[in-house]
Amino acid sequence: MTTLSIQQAVFLISTLRQQLNREMQKFHSEYRTPIAVNSKSIVTAEKSQKVFDSLQKMDQLKHDIVTLKTAIHLKNSTSEIEAGVTASDMLEQLKLERKMIEELQSYTAFGYGQERIKTVAGVGVVEEGIIEEDRVNAYIEELEAAANAKSMKVDQFNSTMMIEVELLTS
């Protein structure tokens, strides 16, 4: 059994995904080659073994990624970051708040191609904007502060909460 913090596990998942991608890439480059000349195989036993080893390693990497993600999910859904709020709850809140911030900022930002003041024929000078823009901007600031506080709590949780897993590749 291996004991890791959630933070270490997240980093390890990223590393394992890179390794998995490298193994899969071999099938596009190293293993995609002429295999016969004049109907006679030119594949060596060594090359065949390399393919077999890659397939086996891919299975092990897949196992470890799934094992780590499952352990993280289990810990996040059963451990509270604060009273009555699990890590999963807070992560979902954080995800939604970040999306809301991103969307609202894009709606309130006027820039190239989105001039606020236009002259419209037959109407006159028209100013465009978001209704209650000051209130919307204040709301964005509140969301950012809340998201930053939650992010710090999640980081603290991830660095101190431990999981135990049985890995095949480490």
Can you give keywords for this protein?
15% strand; 4 helices; 8 strands; two-stranded antiparallel ribbon; 170 residues; single chain; alpha+beta; flat
What does this structure look like?
This protein is of the alpha+beta class and 170 residues long. It has one domain. The protein is built from 4 helices and 8 strands; from the N terminus they run E-H-E-E-H-E-E-H-E-E-H-E. The strands form 4 sheets. It has a two-stranded antiparallel sheet with strand order 1-8. Helix 1 packs antiparallel against helix 2 and helix 3 runs antiparallel to helix 4.
What does the secondary structure layout of this molecule look like, with pairings?
Elements: E1 2-5, H1 6-25, E2 36-37, E3 40-41, H2 45-78, E4 80-82, E5 85-86, H3 87-108, E6 117-120, E7 124-127, H4 133-160, E8 162-165
Helix pairs in contact: 1-2, 3-4
What's this model, at a glance?
The protein has 170 residues and is of the alpha+beta class. It is 61% helix and 15% strand. The protein has one domain.
